[in-house]
Amino acid sequence: MLNSVSIEIENLYKEYQKKGKKIVALNNVSLNIKEGEFIGLLGPNGAGKTTLTKILTTLLLPTSGEAYINDISIKEDKKIRKIVGAVFGETGGRSLYYRLSIEDNLLFYSTLSGLSKDVARKRISSLLNYFDLEDKRKTLVMKLSTGMKAKVLLIRALIPFPKILLLDEPTLGFDAESSEKAKDLLNEFNREFGTTILLTSHNFPEIDELTSRLILIDSGDIVEDCPPNIFKKTAVQEYVHLMFSLPPLPSDGFGMSKLPTEIFKKLVKDQAGADILSLKVKDSFNFVFEATIQPITYPLNETISRITVLILRASGEIFKIAPYMPSLKESFLAFLALNKQESLENKETDLNEIFTFPIQEEDV
Ligand code: ADP
Ligand code: MG
């Protein structure tokens, strides 16, 4: 059963009408997600992530197209809701009963999902303990902080051990420690229960560490679909910064020793398959150089070991090796900048601008 298709999305198209204007939120998206996959859904504000997640959880109907979860059409909302757990962090605690306690909320939703009271109680108390909320179980939801409400929403989604988790910014408002806990727990659900997880998050380390496949959407289109490490390599180049010495070449006949830079460049190209982006003389008396080198033929680590041996063999000395690997956030920003070069050309791109939340009308 493992690796059979869990979510099948065919030409999903969604448009909204806003003040007589048509907004295309999903532009014929097609996608297959296998059972047990842990997927990161990434994209700038307004890309269509929430729309996609809402359609899959039956909260919204598509304008056209189809989607199936475990071969059940998303039009069969009752059946879908039995197998899917969902969190929408952006809308906060709206989907909880404000005048009920945490425990009563969770008990109510557990009963809806068909769990016996006994099983529900055990899971609720275990998960409240895990997220340090046990002493708050009798507290009314309206008295909770945003982060606490977010935790309750996540717990609610996990309690039935759903086959599929659709999480739209579930850790919004979490502090750093709870974020780590949520991350570990999701990882464990995926590993232990084979839960298929689609996670939208602007917490890049979260996506980077957890997911094995990254889906990038922009303006309703899937623009990238690959493992996070591949994405990082394509969007921002990795390189290594080196400081080293090389013995001088024999005198050129005028009493001056020649710098070995040309030979070094050739060796790096031929034997390490890499490009030298910059090469500076740091200390011409002791023949110390600084170089920035970009791997072309081999992975970064292999490039570094090839260059190390090359310098060792030439009787040089290495003083510093500083590899640089882009973070997912850098790659994502670089990717967006490339994709939207025109609109961003004269604009300072900063994170706050990209990650502020859109004001949107709710249909749920
Ligand atoms: P994301 O979650 O990636 O930020 P959304 O799915 O929320 O993106 O939004 C996709 C697009 O659809 C945006 O342009 C947004 O303004 C628009 N949109 C979302 N919900 C509504 C709505 N209820 N009415 C009108 N437009 C909407
Ligand atoms: Mg959203």
What does this structure look like?
The protein is α/β, with parallel strands linked by helices and 364 residues long. The protein has 2 domains: 5-234, Rossmann fold (3-Layer(aba) Sandwich); 237-324, Alpha-Beta Plaits (2-Layer Sandwich). Helices cover 37% and strands 29% of the residues. It contains 13 helices and 16 strands. Residues 16, 18, 23, 25, 43, 45-51, 358, 360-361, 363 line the site of adenosine-5'-diphosphate.
Query: Could you state the order of secondary-structure elements as H and E?
Result: EEEHEEHEHHHEHEHEEHEEEHEEHEHHH
Overall number of domains:
2
Q: Please, how many helices? A: 13
| Name of the CATH architecture of the largest domain | 3-Layer(aba) Sandwich
CATH class placement of the largest domain: Alpha Beta
List the uncertain runs: 342-364
Radius of gyration: 26 Å
CATH topology term of the largest domain: Rossmann fold
Structural class: alpha/beta
Helix percent band: 25-40%
- Counting copies of identical and different chains, the oligomeric state is single chain
What composes the largest sheet? 6 strands, mixed
**Residue-averaged pLDDT, rounded?**
88
| Counted beta strands | 16
**In which order are the strands of the major sheet placed?**
6-7-8-3-9-10
> What ligand molecules are bound, each kind once?
adenosine-5'-diphosphate, magnesium ion
**CATH level-four homologous superfamily name of the largest domain:** P-loop containing nucleotide triphosphate hydrolases
The N- and C-terminal alpha carbons lie at a distance of: 34 Å
So what's the overall shape? elongated
